[in-house]
Amino acid sequence: MSNSLETLAARIDAHFGERMRRLPSGCGELGYVVARDELLSVATTLRDDEQFAFDQLMDVCGVDYLSYGTDEWTTLSATGTGYSRGVERKPVILDESDTFDSERFAVVYHLLSVRKNYRIRLRVYTGTENPPIVKSVVDIWNSANWFEREAFDLYGILFEGHPDLRRILTDYGFIGHPFRKDFPLSGNVEVRYDEKKGRVAYQPVSIEPRTLVPKVIRDDNRYSADLKDARKDG
Question: Cα(173)–Cα(215) distance, rounded to whole angstroms?
Answer without folding.
Answer: 38
